[in-house]
Amino acid sequence: MTKYLFRISDCFLTFIYHINIAPARTDNFRLTFSAFLLQIMDPNLLPAVLRTTLPPKLEKIKNGSYTENDNDYPIHLYLKENDIRVQEDGSDIIQFLKRKNLLITGATGFLGKLLLEKLLRCCKDIGTIYVVIRTKKGVDPQSRLEDFLNNWVFCKLSQIRPNYKDNVVGISGDFEFDGLGLSNESRGILTENVNIIYHVAATVRFDEPLKRAVKINIEGSQQIIQLAKECKKLDVFVHISTAYSNCQEKLIKEDFYPPHIDPYKLMLMTKELPDDILEKITPGMLQSIPNTYLYTKQISEDLVKREAVGLPACIQRPAIVIASAKEPIRSWVDNIYGPVGVMQGAAIGLLHISPVNANGIAECVPADFVINNCIAASYKTVKERKLGQIPIYNFTSSNSNPLHWKDLLYIVKKIGSKILVSKVFFKFTSCWSWYYIVSFLLHTIPAVIIDFVLERLGKKPLYVL
Q: Do 223 and 370 fall within a single domain?
């Protein structure tokens, strides 16, 4: 079977070589392809910067025994010394955060981790930070919290503030349950103590069923606003949205736009209608909106506008969030969403073409910049305190120094991985015909072959959708 598969691979690569799409040596393809089949499910092959925990060989950096001469992985490039400490008395924002108790929803997510880390690092006198955390895959919230706080994104923080965990308290809750799944005791603790709420929690899956997207992104926002209203010492409520929530507009101002549908009607509809009916009518409801994520995030903004009246609240709309630029670890990211997934897929030779205008502006913003803006927005909202209106802060790339999609091709060459499915080459194209042809040859055919082999090995197919 393997010999037969290699013959198919040889013919395929020979054809690709002769049309000059992917000049690659057949022998190299054999080696990488066979290694890929043997090790496809091994998580230790992922680049360190994409893991949620440190690779076993790199745990030694925690006890200071790692040196730049260690060749396991160039982790020193990501943990090298840089000025990420904060002048404790040099910022009005730091003074504002002192002794404040905070609630962060979605703290275990990508942005949530960075927000928590930044707050703990920038203000040693910060109060208690409560994080809502749910039971997942049979692991209870307390165990998940302990594992979460050992994530290597906190590695630099642990050097600066060894006792950082003392400021974090886990609150058991779940946005898919009424009342956020909070017990009366937990709700009482929050309403008595919390000064600042950062509502980061959301389902960011583009293909999320409408019912679940509404439950988390819209009803969840409604529930957290209700909790904010009950907080006796609330200074500010910050809702994280997205700059693409109104993607149907050519120019997106820092203003509210009419919702696609009344949020209360949508919530009632998703509760009353069966799942199969909702699935059938979803495309018609979305119309020109590309997915349920953007659909529900735009409607949740209207809900905030209606329900947060009288609260010191603001909305932040970041563009496409990518890896951190500097803090706390250069190039840190823990997911493969959006451009990150495309670049990683290209870096391992899995993806070779994407239907994007290479000269178009990539509205991508570093995650640490988003976090800094989020904290600054909360301070500005408190300082100006206009209870009659809810300010919106768009956070997009600079017009004076824009990032173009073609610039991301440089990143592909810099991403490291021990997995190489085939020779690394990647192109953007504006020609849909060319995209479909190349995608069929370089994506569809290899996917069918690999899934065929996986099935014969008794494993679950991964690549054919």
A: yes
